[in-house]
Amino acid sequence: MKLLTIIIPCYNAEEYMRHAVDSALLGGDFVEILIVNDGSRDGTERIADEYQQRYPQIIRAIHQQNKGHGGTIMTGLKNASGAYIKVLDADDWLDADSYPLLLSEMQSVTTRGGEADMFISNYVYDKVGAKHKHVVRYTHALPTNRVFGWDEVGRFRKGQYMLMHSVIYRTQLLRDANLNLPEHTFYVDNLYAYTPMRNVRRMYYTDATVYHYSIGREDQSVHEEVMIGRIDQQLLVNRRMFGDVDFAAITNPRMKRYMLSYLEIVTAASASLLIRSGTKENYLKKQRLMEELRLEFPDIWRELRFRFIGMVLSLRGAPGRWVVNCIYAAARAIFKFN
User: Fold this and answer.
1) What are the helix (H) ranges across 201-296?
2) Beta-carbon neighbour count of residue 251 at 10 Å?
3) Positive or negative: CA dihedral 290, 293, 296, 301
4) Which of 136, 190, 183, 133 is nearest to 164 (CA)?
5) Sequence-separated (6 or more) residues with CB below 8 Å from residue 50
6) Looking at residue 336, what is its pLDDT?
7) I want to staple 125 with a disulfide (CB 3.0 to 4.6 A). Which of 134, 189, 279, 280 is the partner?
8) Distance (Å, whole) CA 274 – CA 181
9) Residue 172, C-beta contacts closer than 8 angstroms, at least 6 positions apart
């Protein structure tokens, strides 16, 4: 069995997918690479097949009709044979120095019998044209270089959560969690990072920047105007997050605190984008989102309502919109997330 399966979702990715695949190949025989071609209309299929022919012991090319990002990840999960899974988007890449180091640590941990449900590492916002790249690290919240549980997890700062870019899940944990990402939907990476977390008990963190998250292109799904145009897909994911985790069943207070904080920041992002769009239609959608949360998930509502972001998003009228816009602009300047 391979140590790690790397799933590379590809849709019309001929311009940049080679960088992603070449970076994943630095893992050598430790890894299995699944290039999932999601019904591309450019040269993606040909490139994927070329890689499979060159590296038949490492790379498998899988071709499917278009299902979207979630559909490619689910296809990868179905076909994975590695003990662990990492998702690498086709326009991102893995660090040439830190990635082999992480694999070495994973191998050492599993050889010693200290199996972890999840391995965690840092990631960097590799923004086009930016001189200074923002690195997300977890040294303030997580013990380093050893297996630990939720009782040892500290407080995360706002904007610093364990996203898809930073996590490697145990494959069987994902399958046991009944992960089911919606097809033809953007922003499912939030569900991927959030929903299976309820089953995580043992973690391992290495303070190394492994994942390069490429942002800054105007056509990217995380560009603000693109996100506003696809806001209904963001809301679909957000609503799924409301119902995917039974907070009453979470007995560890630190896990519960983390999960609520993650849900808070995603909900705040949804509401902020609806407000920033400046349309009456989207402002009403924001009101409905808050009302659905209050009526259908009252326990979550009570938790989030009296947090800082929850109180800010409950503000109404022009002053409330002004406050939200200021906070959003400041967060974007600090964290450079789009």
Assistant:
1) 224-229, 231-244, 253-276, 280-296
2) 8
3) negative
4) 190
5) none
6) 46
7) 134
8) 23
9) none
DSSP characters over 36-89:
EEES-SSSHHHHHHHHHHH-TTTEEEEEES--HHHHHHHHHHHH--SSEEEE--
Round to whole Å and give the CA distance between 35 and 91: 13
CATH 3.90.550.10 residue ranges for the chain: 4-215
What is the signed CA dihedral for 323, 326, 329, 335, rounded to 10 degrees?
A: -80
How many C-alpha atoms does 272 have within 13 Å on its Cβ side?
Answer: 22
pLDDT in tens, 290-307: 889 999 999 998 888 777
Between CA 201 and CA 132 the distance in angstroms is: 35
Q: What long-range pairs does 106-111 form, CB within 8 A, spacing at least 24?
A: 106/3, 106/4, 106/168, 106/204, 107/3, 107/30, 109/147, 109/204, 110/3, 110/83
285, two tokens: 């959608």
Maximum CA extent, the chain = 60
Residue type, 287: Q
How far out from the chain centre does Cα 61 lie? 23
Angle between helix 17-24 and 44-54 (nearest 10)? 20
Q: Which residues are registered as beta bridge partners of 94? A: 211
Q: What is the mean pLDDT of the chain?
A: 89
**pLDDT tens digits, residue range 95-136?**
999 999 999 999 999 988 778 999 999 999 987 766 778 899
17-58 pLDDT, tens digit per residue, is 999 999 999 999 999 999 999 999 999 999 999 999 999 999
User: 18 near 47, Cβ under 8 Å?
Assistant: yes
Question: Is domain 4-215 classified as CATH 3.40.640.10?
Answer: no
Sorted by sequence, the CB contacts under 8 Å of residue 240 that are 6+ apart come out as 182, 191
Average pLDDT estimate for 192-196: 97
